Amino acid sequence: MTSLNAHANELPSVDVLAPIFKASGDPLRLEILRVLRRDTFGVLELSQMFDMRQSGMSHHLKVMHKAGLLEPQREGNAIFYRRPLNLDSDKLADQAIRQIFETVDRVALPRHLDEKIEAIREQRAGQSQAFFSRHSEQFREQQELIAAFDLYAEPTAELIRKRAARQSWLSVLEIGPGEGGFLPVLSELFQHVVGLDNSKDMLAKATRTCIEEHLNNVDLIEGVTDTLLARGDAFDLIVANMVLHHVPSPADIFLDAAALMNSGGCLVVSDLCSHDQDWAKENCGDLWLGFEPEELTSWAADAGLTAGEQLFIGLRNGFQVQVREFWKSTEAA
Q1: Do 104 and 173 contact (CB within 8 A), yes or no?
Q2: Most exposed: 74, 157, 251, 255, by fewest CB within 10 Å?
Q3: Where would I find the HTH arsR-type domain in this sequence (predicted)?
Q4: How far apart are CA 150 and CA 157, in angstroms?
Q5: Are 73 and 142 in the same domain?
Q6: Do 318 and 197 fall into the same domain?
């Protein structure tokens, strides 16, 4: 009898499911879960999105967080929310949460929510563009407050050289080339190089770099990834060096990269690991205080990309840079 009772105590209890289903048993909360499928939003942004007072939204988020449906992410003085990154497939509660996510994701967002999400992204993008417009002349100095260019550019270049030596790659896209410091590396390895940036000031600096370095196989384009998707462009390699923490929706970069890559192509990302140095927002124009490695892996998987080699570089000022690669399957269309 004792052994049977002991065995029963080891079995998962359905009691752990009650808070999850109670917290998710509300149409508004299900809508919140849907808009957080890939994005991370602050309390104020979610309040604006759903036309409700901040106190009311905070209550809903607190209940969902307590049930394990959401997790908070501090970005300076603001609290943002996202879906949990690490769900354990062996835990009953996490299985239930994953099933809830998979179920609500089958339902398309209503148009009015899509429009509000896009408005928030445009607001974030405008904030980033305004910063680079004001500080284009001090861009390198501002960035090197966090990490000197060579500290992440050289390891990234070495990884790309190693891959390019074994692949029949011809074309590469660099998202956000800034002053163009990485373009000489890409120009040497690829027949065709495209640099894409939404800042006219940064493109002007990149153009100057191309002229000075005689980079005749580089095309510089003003716009965002949607610009290239509309043109039907495709690339063997896509590079994003210290860009994700400046973009309104980092997860979308993975989706767009997957759509822009040829079969068997690769996305190489270098960016900051999650940190708490809030001054980077004001001094460097950062929208996000870095990312957990699991975030990048999750966004890549959602885009159908497979994580490959990874490298972590610790800096003396307390920052850590991650260099990651993500592959598109050769079977992918």
Answers
A1: no
A2: 74
A3: 9-104
A4: 10
A5: no
A6: yes
Q: Do 174 and 292 sit in the same domain of this protein?
A: yes
Sequence-distant (6+) residues with CB within 8 A of 216 are: none
Contact of 199 with 129, CB cutoff 8 Å? yes
Query: What is the three-class DSSP state of 90?
Result: coil
Residues 249 and 158 in one domain: yes
Is the domain of 181 the same as that of 294? Answer: yes
pLDDT band for position 228 (cuts 50, 70, 90)? very high
Domain that holds residue 53: 2-109
Identify the CATH number of the domain in which residue 21 sits.
Answer: 1.10.10.10
pLDDT of amino acid 333: 46
The three-point CA angle 260-262-263 to 5° equals 130
DSSP strand pairing (171-175 vs 218-222): unpaired
* 159, 288: one domain: yes
Residues 189-210 have pLDDT tens digits of 999 999 999 888 889 999 999 9
Beta-carbon contacts of 288 under 8 Å, excluding residues fewer than 6 positions away, are 40, 75, 244, 245, 250
Give yes or no: residues 185 and 314 share one domain: yes
Q: Is residue 132 assigned to a domain?
A: no
Contacts of 114 (CB under 8 A, 6+ apart): none
Total domains in the chain come to 2
Classify burial at 182, counting beta carbons within 10 Å of its beta carbon; exposed 0-12, middle 13-18, buried 19 or more: buried
The count of other CB atoms within 10 Å of the CB of residue 189 is 17
Q: In angstroms, rounded to a whole number, what is the distance separating the alpha carbons of residues 76 and 283?
A: 13
- For 15, the 3-state DSSP assignment is helix
Amino acid at 6: A
Contact 237, 231 (CB under 8 A): no
Taking the C-alpha atoms of residue 160 and residue 294, their distance in angstroms, rounded to an integer, is 22
Other Cβ atoms less than 10 A from the Cβ of 216: the count is 9
pLDDT digits (tens, 9 = 90+) for 59-109: 999 999 999 999 999 888 889 999 998 888 889 999 999 999 999 999 999
